[in-house]
Design a protein that fits this description.
The chain has 4 helices and 9 strands; from the N terminus they run αβαβββαβββαββ. By secondary structure, it is an alpha+beta fold. The protein is globular, with a radius of gyration of 26 Å.
């Protein structure tokens, strides 16, 4: 092997070793940064579960007074064997300083009633957060809507529209018509409404 080739191979080994060292250092640095960020901003969670919408609304507002805010919701049969509404709340390690949020739960089998109640809540400053389907103690499936009053969001006027149908083709046509008027799709669930059948229920919002 020539002297020139030995020198070149030696340089290549140094280059590869240096690159590996630099890569390892970068990965270690990034991992340390991610770990530090996670440690600096821990999250606390609280899970609420109840079979009564009125109780859930009360517990939501008690939790938000303790610094928690809404994260996710669903309705269904829990391990206890009964139908419950389950909500996950989350709390940041640092206070937001935006004031205490308030929550309102609306539940009904009548889409016309739900739209009216949502609009009344919106006129008071509440905004749509989430929706799910819940089988009440009366044996009927109700659409449950969770709305939030956020003190940091002011002077926002919204109009809500609810659509319900058993036919997807009809839903597409109605969504197209609503979209042409500036409505944005917020949520979609399948629930048993006042007509007695399972219907696709969509909630739309337009900010004025």
């Amino acid at each position: 092997m020539s002297k020139f080739k030995r020198v070149r191979d030696h340089r290549n080994k140094i280059t590869v070793r240096t690159l590996l060292q630099l890569t390892a250092a970068i990965i270690t640095s990034l991992a340390g940064g991610i770990g530090a960020n996670a440690a600096d901003q821990p999250l606390e969670y609280r899970v609420l579960a109840t079979s009564r919408t009125s109780t859930m609304e009360k517990e939501l507002n008690e939790s938000t007074a303790a610094g928690y805010r809404f994260s996710k919701a669903m309705g269904g049969k829990s391990a206890n064997g009964g139908q419950e509404i389950i909500v996950a709340m989350v709390k940041d390690s640092t206070p937001s300083g935006q004031g205490v949020r308030k929550y309102r739960l609306l539940a009904t089998t009548k889409t016309s009633t739900m739209q009216k109640e949502m609009q009344q809540s919106a006129d008071e400053g509440y905004a749509y957060l989430d929706q799910t389907v819940y089988e009440s103690a009366f044996g009927g499936k109700e659409v449950v809507v969770i709305m939030e009053l956020d003190p940091s969001k002011k002077d926002i006027r919204s109009t809500y529209r609810l659509l319900a149908t058993t036919k997807t083709s009809t839903m597409q046509r109605e969504l197209q018509e609503a979209g042409a008027q500036g409505y944005v799709l917020m949520g979609l669930t399948v629930g048993k409404t006042e007509l007695g059948g399972d219907e696709v229920v969509t909630i739309l919002r337009r900010d004025d």
